[in-house]
Specification:
By secondary structure, the chain is an alpha/beta fold. It is 32% helix and 16% strand. It binds ligand FNR and Octadecane (8K6). Keywords: Oxidoreductase.
Length: 346
């Protein structure tokens, strides 16, 4: 058993974890048609309460945040009530859970909400919604400054709703090519106002959202996920590095529970970051760092011992093994993940 994973960790005065293993956020597209968590989702999360912290599947902050079918929301009273059942069940089993707050920006599709697709600039992506081929992506509308102010307010409101729903905190989804990440990369942000052109301007939306969420629920309960290595629905650019350098130095002046790497395989190296996404974040961010991306308990524990990051998030193996933490503790074999497992919520 990799002992370091089973340390108690005190992240701050508000948040202590019983071990260093986090369940990574995993979209499952299984909420009901009102985007309300179901009883099967209650059981799914409750079975995984042995994690030091569960991060919920990405949860949309308002209707136009949606890019995939049946992703849950946190903007109606029915959604809040549905999540309350999830958080109660996780707490009853001794676990903790954060809500991941999501807006997909240009990856949204009007099929789901019937309105404009908003993004930093009117630059679309190729392709169509996964498993819904007929829904090809649209060219988004560049958000106005009024749109942006409303988006910031809606993140803060969703964070308040998360606390009302019993979550222990929130993780702002700033990664994987979705709205916040779209502001942080030159390929998707060609604005010429105070949200574009320079690292400071391109970081502005991420920092405004972060500050608004901190103001509404307190920074000790707020995590932020970032993908400095553009790798999903996004083209990287050498200039992106300076944006993340600026953003991370600004984040060092704020209180957050943690920063979380957004990546599928942390052995990927990015030229302009000078190495892996986690190594880059560690070199600049001074607070708690969550690593993720094709780790096993053993390789993750080794990375923690080498101080490459502080906490380990586990994604796909947690889908395959609801009892992942117990298996690691007992040294039992971990069942391999297979994409066919996404069809059901075990
Ligand atoms: C993901 N991932 C993901 N990330 C995120 O920030 N929000 C999300 O909702 C999802 N959804 C999601 C669904 C599925 C089916 C997969 C496989 C992945 C990424 C995930 O959190 C994690 O970073 C990766 O899976 C890499 O970790 P593992 O799986 O190698 O441990
Ligand atoms: C985040 C919401 C999307 C919902 C489903 C994601 C399914 C992911 C399946 C796993 C593999 C995708 C790998 C993409 C990364 C590209 C790396 C170059």
């Amino acid at each position: 058993m990799p002992q370091v994973l089973f340390d108690d960790v005190k992240l701050n005065d508000t948040l202590s974890l019983k071990n260093r293993i986090l369940m990574a956020p995993l979209t499952r597209c299984m909420a009901d048609d009102n985007l309300v968590p179901t009883d099967d989702m209650v059981k799914y999360y409750a079975r995984r309460a042995e994690a030091g912290l569960i991060i919920s599947e990405a949860t949309i902050i308002r209707p136009d945040a949606q890019g995939y079918p049946n992703t849950p929301g946190l903007f109606t009273s029915a959604q809040i009530a549905g999540w309350k059942k999830v958080t109660d069940a996780v707490h009853a089993n001794g676990g903790k859970i954060f809500a991941q707050l999501w807006h997909v920006g240009r990856v949204a599709h009007p099929h789901f909400f019937g309105g404009d697709v908003l993004a930093p600039s009117a630059i679309g992506i190729e392709g169509s919604v996964p498993r819904m081929r007929e829904l090809t992506y649209q060219t988004p509308k560049a958000a106005t400054t009024e749109d942006i102010a409303q988006l910031v307010a809606d993140y803060a409101k969703a964070a308040e709703n998360a606390i009302e729903a019993g979550f222990d905190g929130v993780e702002i989804h700033g990664a994987n090519g979705y709205l916040i990440d779209q502001f942080l990369h030159y390929a998707s942000n060609q604005r010429t106002d105070e949200y574009g052109e320079t690292p400071e301007n391109m970081s502005r939306f991420a920092l405004q959202v972060t500050d608004a969420v901190i103001a509404s629920i307190g920074g000790e309960r707020v995590g932020l996920r970032l993908s400095p290595g553009a790798y999903f629905n996004m083209e990287g650019d050498q200039r992106d590095r300076a944006v993340f350098d600026y953003l991370l130095s600004a984040l060092n002046n704020r209180t957050l529970a943690y920063v979380h790497v957004g990546i599928f395989d942390d052995s990927m190296e990015f030229d302009y970051l000078g190495g892996s996404a986690s190594a880059y974040l560690r070199s600049l961010y001074k607070g708690t760092l969550v690593g993720v991306g094709s780790y096993t308990a053993e390789s993750g524990a080794e990375a923690i011992e080498k101080q490459q990051f502080d906490l380990l998030a586990i994604g796909r193996p947690f889908i395959a093994n609801p009892d992942y933490v117990e298996k690691v503790r007992k040294g039992q074999a971990i069942k391999a993940y297979d994409e066919s497992m996404l069809a059901t919520l075990e």
